[in-house]
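Title: Comparing notes on inverse folding

I've been comparing how different people in this forum approach sequence design from structure. To keep things fair, I'm posting one structure and asking everyone to reply with a full sequence. Here's the target:
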């Protein structure tokens, strides 16, 4: 039985782009060396950094010089007003839009010619918040990160938002993430990174949700202080974490509580193909603490959409995704799951397999944040909001998805904070 972790594949990519040159064992690329983005590899060949910090600073500007960075240096003052003394709960819609692919060349094959399609996706979700459609959600959630496309994803969101009215901007909830590079060990690193993200996002209003992308080997407590500082300074309206296990979640919640800052979200891998958060108590812990769960990769990177049925259907897919998909498609239990999803979709008018995957995440009380790269995909994903799974259907899907396909064993996140001993990641 194949036992490959989607999470591992994802993080390997991220690691290769940004942490691949480091010797941090916990983040090492264990499965080979996917190609490096052109701008970054150009940078490497031209400039030998004197330190890791210099390297990343230079890498960022090199990338920006070619494709991103003109973009990174967005002018204009950052509006940072003091946070209100009373915390306002973060209001989130029942579905989000993942923007990892918006700028990521290595894993997703992004190039700027796709920007028009991405702009259409953005405009579509804004329409949902503006009440311009029957679906109408009170607001929309876009999830990005400073790592995605080395800032390109954040920049695109900033660009697409430029001409929105103030009223609409308020309805676009932007969640971005701090990258815990091993050399970032101080609270001020969080605040500085947050300011840079804020500029790329347009710089005219606080970030709605600022998350720690994944645990670090050390300095996790310092990051929580950094989050609280960013919150107190009014740079962000709410804070969250990502890829945190139960113990880390509880410790972070307590630390932030002491500063009067609510921990709003934990963004974790959760899908019909990755159900560890159910088994290890993480979903329950989030619920107990009132921490909203954002389910990332709810479509298992596209596998749970029904468009890939056998190895022959993978012609358009390349890189690490292809290897992962091949292994999964060969698993007869996955085929049974797909058949069940198709059967469930056929019970509902105009429903499809991707919507079944999304609604399964919703049925578990989480907010799925599927990625979308064109209008057809985003319309389909939002279409999931027009119907719901019955209890019987959820049970049927649970059963079909009860095989142990993915394992977190190989996930390259640090399991434990080396200085405090706290278990950080366990799913
Ligand atoms: N915190 C973390 O560590 C972490 C890790 C991973 C992801 N995330 C977040 O979660 C978001 C979503 O996860 P993900 O992008 O990894 O994977 P995903 O949502 O499981 O899959 C997204 C991909 O599925 C395909 N797709 C989407 N909608 C479709 C539809 N209706 N019909 C057919 N195909 C469809 C698209 O790929 P094609 O265009 O190739 O068909 C799309 O890029 C990310 O964008 C990111 O914001 C966070």
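Reply #1:
Here's my take.
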């Amino acid at each position: 039985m194949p036992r490959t972790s989607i999470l591992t594949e994802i993080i390997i990519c991220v690691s290769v782009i940004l942490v691949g040159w480091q010797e941090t064992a916990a983040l090492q690329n264990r499965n080979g060396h996917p190609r490096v983005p052109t701008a970054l590899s150009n940078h490497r060949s031209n400039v030998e950094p004197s330190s890791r910090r210099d390297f990343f600073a230079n890498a960022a500007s090199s990338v920006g010089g070619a494709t991103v960075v003109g973009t990174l240096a967005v002018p204009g003052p950052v509006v940072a007003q003091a946070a209100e003394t009373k915390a306002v709960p973060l209001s989130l819609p029942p579905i989000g839009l993942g923007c990892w692919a918006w700028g990521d060349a290595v894993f997703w094959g992004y190039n700027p010619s796709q920007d028009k399609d991405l702009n259409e996706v953005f405009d579509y979700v804004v329409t949902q918040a503006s009440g311009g459609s029957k679906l109408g959600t009170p607001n929309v959630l876009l999830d990005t990160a400073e790592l995605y496309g080395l800032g390109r994803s954040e920049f695109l969101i900033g660009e697409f938002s430029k001409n929105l009215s103030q009223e609409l901007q308020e309805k676009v909830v932007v969640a971005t993430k701090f990258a815990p590079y091993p050399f970032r060990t101080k609270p001020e690193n969080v605040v500085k990174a947050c300011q840079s993200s804020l500029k790329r996002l347009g710089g005219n209003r606080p970030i709605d949700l600022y998350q720690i992308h994944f645990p670090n080997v050390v300095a996790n407590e310092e990051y929580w202080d950094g989050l609280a500082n960013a919150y107190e300074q009014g740079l962000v309206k709410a804070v969250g974490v990502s890829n945190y296990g139960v113990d880390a979640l509880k410790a972070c919640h307590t630390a932030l509580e002491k500063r009067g800052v609510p921990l709003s979200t934990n963004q974790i891998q959760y899908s019909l193909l990755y159900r560890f958060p159910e088994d290890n108590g993480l979903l329950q812990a989030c619920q107990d603490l009132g921490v909203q769960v954002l389910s990332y990769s709810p479509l298992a990177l596209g596998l749970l959409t029904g468009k890939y049925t056998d190895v022959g259907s993978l012609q358009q897919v390349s890189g690490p995704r292809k290897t992962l998909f091949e292994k999964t498609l060969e698993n007869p239990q996955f085929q049974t799951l797909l058949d069940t999803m198709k059967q469930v979709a056929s019970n509902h008018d105009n429903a499809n397999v991707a919507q079944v995957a999304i609604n399964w995440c919703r049925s578990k009380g989480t907010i799925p944040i599927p990625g979308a790269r064109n209008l057809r995909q985003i319309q389909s994903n939002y279409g999931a909001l027009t119907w719901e799974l019955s209890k019987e259907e959820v049970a049927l899907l649970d059963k079909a998805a009860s095989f142990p396909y993915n394992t977190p064993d190989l996930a390259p996140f640090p399991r434990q904070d080396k200085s405090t001993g706290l278990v950080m990641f366990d799913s």
